[in-house]
Amino acid sequence: MAEAQARQRGGYTEDVSAERLAEIGLRFEVDGEIATITLDRPEKRNAQTFATWSALARIGEDLPEQVRVVVVKGEGPSFSAGIDLRMFTPEGVPGQGSFSSAAKSDGAGFEQRIRQAQAGFLWLRRPEIVSIAAVQGHAIGAGFQLALACDLRIVADNVRFCMKEPALGLVPDLTGTKPLVELVGLAKAIDICLTARTVHADEAMRIGLAERVVAGGDLDKAVQDKIAELLSTNRDAAVATKRLLQGAQARTLEEQSVAEGLEQAARIKALFG
Ligand code: ACO
User: Fold this and answer.
1) How far apart are CA 262 and CA 268, in angstroms?
2) Which of 24, 43, 45 to mutate to test the pocket of ligand 1 (most atoms within 8 A of CB)?
3) Average pLDDT, the chain
4) How confident is the model at residue 7 (pLDDT cuts 50, 70, 90)?
5) Which of 116, 158, 258, 267 has a Cα-to-Cα distance from 45 of 20 to 30 A?
6) What does the longest C-alpha to C-alpha distance in the chain come to?
7) Rounded CA gap, 87 and 83, in Å?
8) How far is C-alpha 249 from the chain's CA centre?
9) Among protein residues, the one whose CA lies closest to atom 36 of ligand 1
10) CA nearest ligand 1 atom 1, residue
11) What letters, b where the CB count within 10 A reaches 16 and e where it falls short, cover 164-178?
């Protein structure tokens, strides 16, 4: 059964049966228009591996069409302590290699592997959904980038964001650099990444990393409240509006006005045609 559900893509077997997700340290639940992805390896502070990212990509590919909101959360005290540090050891993560084995492979192969990992993050920005990261405790490296991959971040007052990669000789490569710059500006992004310092809740709120800060015990309720607000608008209008907002920065005002007109004409046709 598990094998029947497995798919071979680019050298990875992505099996998103509940049992396989549990092995990887993930849970995935769909309740009507709401999907919830839970990083579920609290004893290892929800450290992530290439298997985590392959599974996320596959969840994104197979997301049921009715889903409008995707919540990404972490079990336990930390949202995620980032990449599994076993990747830095010669032994690596069983079945997934290590950075030393990657260094010995040809460059194109590892670049391809990174692209596959990034696919696990990129789908969270699709116009058809709104993604919310519910973040408590540490969100380090890949954990920070997973939170950045989401449209909105609702955080607990004990949140600790840290872009640790440059301290470890790496760059943030899990799609986090662009949203970080867009959210906080280039100077602050340079400050946060190149010092690998910790950003606490009050600063996260002030610089636009977080939409809302709540006491830890209120995080689930705050997310539920936001979901209710998001689901109160018209689905097709929400999708078209997100598309417009996402394209706004790359367009001139004139081009954006044209895009608004086109989307509105389609809305009017759908509503009154
Ligand atoms: N990978 C693998 N295991 C981890 C990781 C990780 N990234 N982070 C924590 N763990 C494990 C610990 O080894 C420990 O395991 P053990 O109980 O078998 O000894 C367990 O999780 C609990 O960790 P503690 O350090 O005891 O937990 P604490 O709550 O005190 O601290 C913290 C949490 C701050 C997140 C700390 O664990 C930490 O600094 N982790 C490493 C963070 C890191 O450098 N990540 C890489 C970022 S770069 C990137 O993601 C690309």
Assistant:
1) 10
2) 45
3) 94
4) very low
5) 116
6) 63
7) 8
8) 21
9) 81
10) 84
11) bbeeeeeebebbbbe
